[in-house]
Amino acid sequence: MIVPTPMTRREHFASLAALAFLIPAVTRAAPTRDEAFSWPILVARAKTLAGKAWKPVEARAHAHAIDYDAVGAIGYREDKTLWADHGSGGVRFFPLSRYAQTPIEVAVVDKGKATPFRYSASLFDTKSPELTALVAESDGFAGFRVMNPAGQLGDWLAFQGASYFRTAGMLNQYGLSARGLAINTSVPGMSEEFPAFTHFWLERGANDSIIVYALLDSPSVTGAYRFVNHKDSKAITQDVTLTLFARKDIAQLGIAPLTSMFWYGEGNRAAGIDWRPEIHDTDGLALLTHTGERLWRPLINPPRITTSSFLDDGPKGFGLLQRDRNFDHYQDDGVFYEKRPSLWIEPQGNWGKGAVTLFEIPTTRETDDNVVAFWTPAKQPKRGQRLDYAYRMNWMATEPQPISVARATDSWTGTAGRPGHEPTTGARKIVIDFAGGDLARFTRNQLEPSVTVQDGKLLMSVAYPVEGSGGHWRFVADVARHSGETSDLRVFLKANGTALTETVLYQLHWPDG
Prior knowledge:
mainly beta, ten-stranded antiparallel sheet
């Protein structure tokens, strides 16, 4: 995981996963002269690399001594900022540390020429002789970040660790991360592979954009990436173009992977052992299918590792969203979960058949990134195959695009049965609130719920407007267990056969036994 220094404890722990695949091996010789550079040259380089055996970058042993506190005591010198006059902000670089021990190579592109940006200890300010010696021992950067324009504090974009990157979004608060690629993330019995960006080329683009080119390498695949990064007062976008070359057959390829954290929210209050009412970077997965249907899957902290697949043919979009923007729901005045950005992936061109895969891992703390979402093509790559993808990444604090129907705002679970009576055994109650769209025009008994339950029995369901709420409608259902570990609900509200809300996909987990 990548962040501006100093790292929080959450990034401290999450970054360890990104380092798990980095095995000391051979060192690399950094370029010493200007070279011709273009997108076709980078694609050709990735193709050539795919024909060679994978050689991991050597982790620098001394970097282990630069721990969490030491990272915060090493600062990049402001007067050494690259492109300090850039309209979107200049670039500064991260030192190696315990959490990012492998150096990257960096070059600056201008008029078709790439000039190496060489590492020097003089680029950093340190607060002790020990740190000065460690920084001097390094031979490369761990990553880089793009600072906010003059007059604004902090940074808004960072690349560091494997193929991880992220932005602070429109509310200037880092949260979920993105990756260049995911491999075998949710394949039973297989270890996940973390491809790494080993080389970067930075270029000033049109309209104050910053273009980042990257070379990706791993045991299974190589790739060429182009990110056109743009920030203004209304949006942060990244236009991504990538070309992959498979070194070998791949069991599961994850395109445009997103990584986030969900510990607990209003729907799983029993997991809330902390004093704060809710703790999560993201509260749901949103999907826009090729037919134009909007789907919403509330995130869960499952009792067991869970993989969900949402089939589609040419998806129009998907993303992990933080819809709940109410500070009172979190009460965290340190890391401000209500300000965490949402991230929406907008495919360019037709991606064909496949599925959005959602992978959820149980967690008991906020330091774990336990949620991953990505696109999986129906046909997995074979050795020697080339794949080309393009998509836009929208980092935002609102919905991805105007929604013509009402959206789900909250969801809860509890004991089934009538309040004040004995609970219904072997069943759970699900409550989902909807708001927006045309709901305010309807009164009680004018809308009806459409509910289907997989591997469960629907005991009752009802939908009604919440008195005095200004157009909120509430769906309530009791569902009994059937034979499986989970029951899956599909719910929307309709009038005269027309859907007036997005479709909510709710997964209900039953206890073991």
